[in-house]
Specification:
single chain; mainly alpha; 9 helices
């Protein structure tokens, strides 16, 4: 048991990173397995929460993470089993936002304490960037939940499209297939664009600075 715990602690960022990439590939999984898309989303989202909970290392942070994760999972599965109930969806969005914001907070705390270049320092910023995209997806989904006229969506609608739009927003790609229409949706899109660019600039600067410090010692 102790050996398993050590392995999980050593590769916690890698495990979490694999889980979030797995979530991003949900449409491909649904196509290959012929699984109903909603089933694939719920299962992969659950894996993301379980794997990301490994990031918490201290007892107090682990307890908070498990509580937030359990609450989010309850509402995710409730929404899956009882679709169409608006109150459940609202609680799912709120609990998911709090959970992934807390994941980002823990990640930043841990990365700040890392003094040498190792696997965690390399994978951590990548994981943080994907968490940022997921938080953006939750925000866009929330805006659409409050006002369904917030976005112009081409093709079939699914909740996954907001996570897709979040990532093309923070990378400032913009294909034009999803368009924010209301001022609220446009403002959140601008904020995500700015945060995405500053995140990349700051992470690269910190990475280079720590690399130089390690080499100079």
């Amino acid at each position: 048991m102790k050996k398993i715990t050590e392995i999980l602690n050593t590769y916690k960022y890698l495990i979490a990173l694999i889980s979030v990439f797995n979530f991003l590939l949900t449409p491909i999984h649904a196509t290959i397995s012929e699984m109903y898309p909603a089933h694939a989303v719920v299962l992969n989202y659950t894996l993301v929460i379980l794997a990301s909970s490994l990031i918490a290392s201290r007892t107090k942070t682990r307890i908070r993470t498990h509580i937030l994760g359990a609450v989010a999972l309850v509402f995710i599965w409730l929404e899956f089993s009882k679709p169409g109930i608006q109150m459940i969806k609202a609680f799912r969005l709120a609990s998911s936002f709090l959970l992934f914001s807390y994941f980002c907070f823990l990640l930043l705390q841990q990365l700040r304490k890392i003094e040498k270049i190792n696997l965690q320092f390399i994978l951590g910023p990548i994981l943080g960037f994907i968490y940022l995209g997921i938080i953006g997806g939750i925000l866009f989904e929330t805006i659409h939940f409050i006002d369904p006229r917030s976005f112009h969506l081409r093709g079939d609608y699914s909740g996954y499209v907001f996570y897709y739009f979040s990532f093309i927003s923070i990378t400032t790609v913009g294909y034009g297939d999803v368009t924010p229409l209301t001022p609220q949706a446009q403002s959140i899109t601008l904020v995500m664009n700015i945060i995405g660019q500053f995140y990349l600039a700051i992470v690269i600067a910190v990475f280079v600075g720590k690399y130089i410090n390690v080499k100079s010692k």
